[in-house]
């Protein structure tokens, strides 16, 4: 697969996830961009704060995964070998700039779908019997949400996020836990930009680390293989 086509396909796939999230949100009558804020309301201070929080929030994930990957277990070894998969090798051969753009597409697309659409939609569920009073509306601070509904919304949206990454069974679990973490970032800040940046920064860092490791591997000398 040509590198240009692979890059366009990967970015398109990630952005399509976000587009599906926007479409579902429109269909159920909510705005998946409700926690992004309006452009006219943005300030350099708020933008810088959210970007900074997002980048810093990626560091605990990177540290936790780095420690996890050191555990000598077959399921961990399987994840560590993902860089040997042809498609992943092709992705890691892309320039750093394209890997960064792909990471941004993943952060935007997946966070729009799962934290922008699914999480607030489930949090705003109304009880048809009227036994559970829920005054939360999409766009409100999550501090006003019914705690039990919020927990269920976080779990369901995070498991859905994990199922989007069916690379290995363990990877689904890890991705689901990351989904909980991204949801917590949104709930604590009421800003979708924070998990978008954290997600993109984490993906970019993992891409760059894997690319550096592959580039550092000794390459076979074609002349030697002919001897």
Q: Can you characterise this structure?
A:
This protein has 227 residues and is an all-alpha fold. The protein has one domain. It has nine helices and no strands. Helix 5 crosses helix 7 (169-189) and helix 6 (147-163) crosses helix 7. The longest helix has 28 residues, at 96-123. It is globular, with a radius of gyration of 20 Å. The mean pLDDT is 91.
Provide the descriptors you would attach to this structure in a database record.
globular; 227 residues; 70% helix; mainly alpha
Question: What's the short story on this structure?
Answer:
The protein has 227 residues and is an all-alpha fold.
Number of strands: 0
What is the string of helix and strand elements? Answer: HHHHHHHHH
Strand coverage percent: under 5%
Give the helix tally: 9
Helix content: over 70%
* Major sheet details: none
Mean pLDDT: 91
What radius of gyration results from the CA coordinates? Answer: 20 Å
- Low-pLDDT segments: none
Shape by Cα distribution? globular
Overall number of domains: 1
